[in-house]
Every structure is written in structure tokens, then in C-alpha cells.
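Just wondering, does anyone understand what follows?

——
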Amino acid sequence: MKIKPPKSSPISEILPKKPVLLMGAGPVPIPEEVAKANSIVISHLGETMKQIVSRVQAMGQYIFQTSSQKIFGISGPSSAAMEMAVTSLLWPGRKVLVLNLGTFSARFSELAKGVGAEVTEIHTPQFGPFYAEQIKEALEKSQFDVLTLVQGETSCGVKNIDLEAIVKVAKSYGVRTIVDAVCTLSTMPLQMDEWGIDIVLVGGQKGMSAIPGISLIAFAEETFEFISKREATMPHWCLDPRRAYKFWGLGEYHYTAPVPGILAIHEGLRLICEETLEKRFERHASCSKLLQKCLELMGLELYTPEKFRLNSVVAIKNSFKINVKEMIAFMINEHHVEISGAFGLDIFRIGQMGEQARPENIKRVLIALTAGHAKFDVSLNLEAALAEIEKFEGGGPKASSRSVDEMVALS
């Protein structure tokens, strides 16, 4: 039987007529400069690409706060960067301690088991963070080669506030560390060299305000040297950092690089550098605190205690026991705003990463969230939240001439 071509439709007929504002746990809206860069294809080899790669690495040193030149882009999501990190340091006979806070920190276990490493997981009660004393106790009981942890657990909105101390404890026991900074890098401080982290990884689609499908990974120089001398067979070809160095360090062929993605992340990094990390941290912290305060003023309860609450992904309890999946669909279809559900938890999540962390975006998501709850006969105090946003912006509580009902109807 000869298969006939299907009826084709241009992408313009498939995409929503009005763009959806992405306010979930990622991906995030991208700046115009990133979008333009992502539409360009040049040769993945040659002098132009060498210049771009060199600039990505130099800007990466600033973002990761490292002097290491072993910063590579990966053709794949953050999980591919996790896989490169794990398969670089683990193989049969090696032992890893996984600090499991939820879905994404647990992924390290799956990856480590896949390469035959011996995995030990430890957990904390009620999705709290880990503390250095807990880790010291675990390292006293057993010997490990590697410790993995997240700076922020995207799935439940918990920040590992003791990350620096945990890394230093691990280092004192000769244990190498892998840190997932996927939803935190550039939104809050992380000092790779000062804290002594061996490997840090990040995706393009969150704090970087770039695109999904390309990630960055940074290796401490001494750690990369250790990996370069390993005798165990590397299980991956594309994700072998020694081969990646041919392209990212020597300008030679490894595989055909994701050129538009590299150009996009170049622009994302450039915009971060122009804003500066200090100003970016302040913008993210102030916008997230504004969002959190507004949510509470509206009558919602935040899932994570303030002490270790993640600013970049805010988790909200489903206190009114509404159908979160239906609410999210309603918000998308009727108000063109998208937030996230969760992985097994009765919560929903709002992102504050990169371009999400703007007061005008907070306003839109709160209006849509109010309408989403109203669909289930739950009334939220949107007026108090909008007054707080206007106060934050310096306009005073009566700056808007539209009523709350009008704003909900027009969003």
C-alpha cells in the first residue's frame, strides 16, 4: 500500500490566534532579540561560530561565577545536561548520594542507575530542604563518590537554602557535587567557584529566557581533568564531555551543533550580562515577593514556608479543591495565560523566571487566576492584589480607572 501525504496545514493555522502568556514552571516568554537569533542558521564550524562560542563561554563564566573554561552547550533539554554530568562521574562500582526533594532531584537516581552506579537516596519530611548536618551524618555512615542536589526543586517550590554548606561538607569528605540550577541560575545567587561545586547545569528555557532544547553545563577545571583521565567506557557519544570539548574548546567537529539554539542562548546570556546579575537578582526577588503577597491577599495559601520558599517557581495550595487541570485549560482558552499543575501534589505553580518576573505579567496571571477560580464558584480578592501591584509600580491604589470585573472580562 502506498501511503499518501496527509493534508498539510501551515503552523499559523495551528497556533493560537492570540499568543499565550507562559507563566508556568517553564518554558518562559523570550525577548525579541532571542527570538530573532533563533531564526538564523549559519555554519556550525568556522570563525563566526568560534567567536560566538567564545562569547557564550565568557558570558557563561559570569553567569555560573566560575573561572573554568569548561563550559559546554548541549543539544538537548536540561535532562540531557543532567545525563552528561551523571555519566561523566558515575559508572559501575561508583556510589552516589541523591538528595531527593521531588520529581527533578529524583531524576538523578534514574540516570545513575542507568549507568550501573550504586544509588542511595535520602529524603526530608514534607518537602523541606536539606541541611549540612544531615549530609554530614550520611557521609559518616557510608562512603560516596558523588552527591547530587538541586538548588531549587521546581516540582514543589522548595529552595535548598543550605546548598553552599552542603557542598563544602561533601568536599571535605572527598565527594564530588553535581548541582541542578535549572530553575534558579540567574534568578538568585550561585557561586560555582567560591562554593566549590564540581558541575553545575542549566536549561535555556527558564531563567536564561532563551529556548527549550539547549542547555549549558559547567565543569570545574580539576573535575574535567579527572573525567578526561577516566578509564571506564563512556556510555554516550553525544554526551561525552571529552568529545564536546573538541567543539567547545578547540573549534573542531563533534556533531552538527544546534546553531539557532546557540545563537539564542548567546542573546539570552548577553541580556543577562547587560542587566547584571545583581539587578537581575533584585528584580526576581522583588517581583516574586510581590506575586506571593498578592496571592495571599487574594485569599490563597502558599504551599512552601517562606524560610525556604523558592522565588523562581511559586507553589500554591489548592485550598478550595477545584479541578486544577480544568482551571488551567480555562485560563489558556479564555484568558491566554498558562500556569502549571504539579506532579502528584495538589498544588499549582506560577513561574517567576526571566521575562516572567515583570509586574505587568503578574497582573495578567492574577486576573486570569481569579477568573479560573470564579469558574468553580470561588471568589478571590483580586482588587486587593491589583492595588498592591499599583502600589509597587508607584501608581497608588487608585491608579486604574477600570473596575475589577471589567479587567477580568477584558483579559
User: Anything to note?
Assistant: The chain has two domains: 21-25+276-410, 42-274. The longest strand covers residues 95-100. DSSP finds 16 helices and 13 strands in the chain. The two ends are 51 Å apart (CA to CA).
